[in-house]
């Protein structure tokens, strides 16, 4: 029997490298996380999800796993991980690990063996293909980090497939031994107390084994929702998730709401939730050759219609995972809101519309104090995606100018989320006594946990209230959902209803005052459940990023 604890929960994502460094080597670690559990308890979250902490060469910050059974010494020891889990559990906080199941590091034992010959016991653990007649790659697929998705291996005299860096070879899920090996790892961590999984690019595990060319060379359009994906996920569920009662949230980049309803319908026994990318693309030009670097103004009509479609499709047929930020996303207030004059207002406005929806909200470290994008110059960035894409789009394909690329990087680079957590005004923002592995945002003297909590406009306290509501109010988990003013370009307004209780969630997502008359929606008395301006406006208007929830 599954215990669906996560339906009432709020989950906090920790990016271990950048959260808290306990031993002054400039890198966050497990003991650092443990020392901050009281902070997370105070915030009120029910679970933490840790980005990968397994042994890894860190080509992609741990999303290149060398050994799934071993904690990277940079983060601590296995014993320290077990102690962290135990401490978290004592405090009533569950622990979710990140499982990278689509690929491993090229330094993993399996790959080291696999590349030796075509006949060894691991030869079929990865996806190997012969070269074409002129030595060319088996097809024209591209890698997410730029260039071909195939790399030639001298020893084995074959190409291997990698959707990400060449140091991240894709596992061959067609091989039952690979699937069994993954179940074994999951059971090992379950035994250590882990409560669930965030499954990295899980919709990529099944490949089209005919390997047809993509319409556009070196693109990534054929990477998702392969022919055996549902079958593999169902098998995973029957072997691990259901018998061991582990929560799952899968990363599902190309899934639309209709696809998701297949992935998370409890009757189908696959996943509990998925992370969609759809609503995060509202500031991206569609089908542009420069992909994530082709930006436009955020389209909030689209944001509303996408989120509403997911609310509708998954109602009674699964469950939503709600997020605006994670380790791959820039800070939402820098991207869509206003990270200077209306930092508090925009942070709380986006939080209000997200946490008011049906689903499980995910908070990314620093989001709860309104951390902003970094003020980096090109040399300060570290991310392999950015570097690979710079080489590919700017230098080789020349489809985007350096200036436009840098402008996009300033908005959406993954590194903006990865800057060290800003705890206080002391050196390196209280993150570490040593120079951090990635530069601290220079605004840490104004924006940090201590300062936020002392402020009369505390984002942390606003999040505390949202989390309390989630725990207390059934209307949030069970209530119906109805979008109002669907075509309004600036306002996000919706209604939740459960029995005789009705809530109106209202937010102005822009920095200009908007006309809005509550009495058009509500007859009679109402009361405020939450609001981000001290005094509600008496005139029929919403001030910049004004947001509230009212009950009537
Ligand atoms: O991300 C998968 C993913 O789809 C994004 O990295 C995407 O390629 C990028 O945002 C471009 O749109 C997951 C992890 O979250 C990420 O950190 C890893 O780099 C990636 O998988 C490979 O493991
Ligand atoms: Ca450390």
TrEMBL record:
Q: Which Gene Ontology terms describe the biological processes this protein takes part in?
A: oligosaccharide catabolic process
Q: Which residues form the Glycosyl hydrolase family 13 catalytic domain?
A: 13-418
Q: Which UniProt keywords apply?
A: Glycosidase, Hydrolase
Keyword Hydrolase assigned: yes
Kindly give the SUPFAM superfamilies that the UniProt entry links to this protein: (Trans)glycosidases, Glycosyl hydrolase domain
Q: What SMART domains does this protein's entry cite?
A: Aamy
Entry's Gene Ontology molecular function annotations: alpha-amylase activity
Report the family membership.
Answer: Belongs to the glycosyl hydrolase 13 family.
**Name assigned to this protein:** Oligo-1,6-glucosidase
Question: Which species does the entry assign this protein to?
Answer: Ligilactobacillus agilis
